[in-house]
Amino acid sequence: MSQNIESTLVENRRFPASESFIHNAQHSPEQIQALYEQAENDYEGFWKEQAEAKIDWSKPFSSVLSTERAPHFEWFNDGEVNVSYNCIDRHLEERAHQTAIIFEGERGDTRHITYKELHDEVCRFANALKVNGIQKGDRVVIYMPMIAHAVVAMQACARIGATHSVVFGGFSAEALRDRVADAGAKMIITADGGFRGGKTVRLKDAVDAALEGNPLSVEKVVVLKRTGDDIEMKEGRDVWWDEFEAGMSNYCDPVPVEAEHPLFILYTSGSTGKPKGVQHSSAGYLLGAITTMQWVFDVNPNKDVYWCTADVGWITGHTYVAYGPLAVGATQVIYEGVPMVPDAGRFWKVCEDHKVTTFYTAPTAIRALMKAGEQFPDQYDLSALRLLGTVGEPINPEAWMWYYEKIGASKCPIVDTWWQTETGANMIAPVPQTTDCKPGSCTRPLPGIDAIIVDEEGNEITTPNQGGYLVIRKPWPSMIRTVWNDDERFQNTYYPMFDGKYYLAGDNARKDEDGYFWIMGRTDDVLNVSGHRLGTMEIESALVAHEAVAEAAVVGMPHEVKGEAVLAFVICKGDRPEGEAADALVKELREWVSQQIGPIAKPDQIRFADNLPKTRSGKIMRRLLRSIGKGEEITSDISTLENPAIVAQLQGKA
Ligand code: WTA
Fold first, then answer.
1. Residue of 494, 519, 530, 534 best suited for mutating to test ligand 1, as the one with most atoms within 8 Å of CB
2. DSSP 443
3. Around Cβ 205, how many Cβ atoms within 10 Å?
4. Which residues contact 14 (CB under 8 A, 6 or more apart)?
5. For a Cys-Cys bond, which of 76, 117, 423, 430 suits 259, CB 3.0-4.6 Å?
6. pLDDT for the residue numbered 654
7. 153 and 297 in contact (C-beta within 8 Å)?
């Protein structure tokens, strides 16, 4: 198993939460400690109690965990629930006039939406969905900018039991088409475009291209006017959002659904094949969102202004924007754009303007903002902040310290949250009242989460700092239920070894002397570029689909800001291009990948070679390519290769 040298550096600094943080927290350290103990002693009883206390059930459950269909575990499966009711209606008595969403567009337009207004908007849209034939179980694809309407669309689906599949607005038409087809979506909800990075992103054009000439299942496309750009509306298929919901009632009965009913499908990359549709449940997923909002983020709905910067196109934007904050009755900020527009002070300005208390973002953003200099945060009043969070990739201690000191004024705990699209909610993260933070460690598994590290045979590794596979031993409520339409792929991916006993996360990790977890990177061919998950295979397939390319291999290489960058080795048909021809082809291939997948997948570097390193039996030596990508010295014996001389060329030395 590969060991990442950097991540084995010893980091011993500890940062306990301040007295005042602990004093103001929703739970005392004793209460949190009791949760850990209860979960340890009576796992199912613990989750039963949480589910009863925190969810408003349409029909109570009697069964807690069902293992009959293992590893497709089911939770609370004879109960019924409506997620939208839990996120909105149940707060109306107390919070009708409290702001649910403070929206800020990249160009500065703002809008405050109360819980009552959100209720009415969601109901109108849900009624329109129903009138247009969308029923419980139908799939609806949402391809929108990061604006409040995206949350309205998701909540409206949840209200009538339609299963949504949000596709990140940065994905290309090709990527959108694949997802729409796999999900068998009846409808797409989109916008003319969105504002991002100082430009407009023309979403509707991509929808048109995705649907062109394709006998897909889509009957209707609902289009929100956001940018006002000229777009084409196809007669009979396309309808403007405003017309779609015109005349609809402000009340729509929430449809109770079975606890296991799929709330959503979200596509994510794996090591093989096309992205897989991670299918989540309704009740168990909701419970994971609520408990972590309370334990990890300590959100106080009466005081906090919470802001998670993730786009709803990713899991973080599902659990910690569209569902979690609303389920606990919080006030949250939704911001449309990127951190660097108009300059690297934007995030801090938003924090000041809306008096953000709780701020959750990705290490890649922190590194980029740190690089821009402290003159940006220095211009703004960040004194309302009381808790900071990170997600998506390991944070290097230097960035952690900058975040802690410059943004948090050395008074805010930083919750480093490890989790995945598949886990639905935070899994390993500090509850600051009881767990001191250490820069770079996601600390300890949350109450009711049984994460351990094992060796190849599945034996638990107890030696401190020895790396191994990160696995979850017991099923948990918010876990993935299956891969949409592909139970076999679900089992092969997540329960491939250890006799199906443990959920395999796909990460390497180690535990230090204090039992703190340190994530060491993926065990598979998945890259983490700016916190975005990308499969090397997907990028390779995109490259070989280009007429000039015969073969391609993609690996990650360390990158100061993005964490990891994409390096592609490309073998062309015919001669290896050189000089200007090579430069031109690099440009073309980067553009090509952008069209095939999306700009986030563009290779940072492309190296042309005569061949790839192969064993005598013709297998590509991926491990060797990964070492080359990392710039490591090649110490392994390469004489057994079919073509040892190729190594120098791939390293750029020949
Ligand atoms: C990585 C994002 C280190 C990890 C929520 C995981 C992390 C993958 C952390 C999932 C963290 C996520 N520290 N690594 N705090 N959080 N990862 O599905 O490799 O987009 O397997 O979910 O991101 O990425 P995904």
1. 519
2. B
3. 16
4. 436, 437, 438
5. 76
6. 66
7. no
Residue 9 banded pLDDT, cuts 50, 70, 90: low
Dist CA 543 CA 548 (whole Å): 9
Other Cβ atoms within 10 Å of 485 Cβ, number: 14
Pairing of strands 549-559, 563-572: antiparallel
CB 147 within 8 A of CB 314: no
User: 418 in ligand 1 pocket by Cβ < 6 Å?
Assistant: yes
> What is the token pair recorded at 92?
């109306």
In order of 84, 367, 380, the CA distances from 373 in angstroms are 42, 10, 13
Q: Kindly give the interhelix angle for 283-295 and 43-54, rounded to the nearest 10 degrees.
A: 90
Lowest mean pLDDT among 27-41, 66-80, 347-361, 512-526: 512-526
Distance in angstroms (rounded) separating the CA atoms of residues 78 and 63:
6
Mean pLDDT of 462-478: 97
Q: What is the pLDDT of residues 482-515, one digit of tens each?
A: 999 999 999 999 999 888 899 999 999 999 999 9
CB-based contacts of 43, cutoff 8 Å, min separation 6: 448, 450, 474
Nearest atom of ligand 1 to the alpha carbon of 526: 19
Counting other chains too, the contacts that 453-460 makes at CB distance below 8 Å and 24 or more residues apart are: 453/509, 453/510, 453/511, 453/517, 454/498, 454/502, 456/1, 458/497, 458/498, 458/499, 458/501, 458/502
| Distance of alpha carbon 408 from alpha carbon 386, whole angstroms | 7
Q: Report which ligand 1 atom has the smallest distance to the Cα of 505.
A: 21
SS (H, E, C) 297-345: CCCCCCCCEEEECCCCCCHHHHHHHHHHHHHCCCEEEEECCCCCCCCCC
DSSP classification of residue 474: S
Q: Tell me, what amino acid is at 434? A: T
What is the separation, in whole angstroms, between the first and last Cα of the chain? Answer: 30
Does ligand 1 have an atom closer than 6 angstroms to the CB of 416?
Answer: yes
Q: Residue 20 burial (CB < 10 Å; 0-12/13-18/19+)?
A: exposed
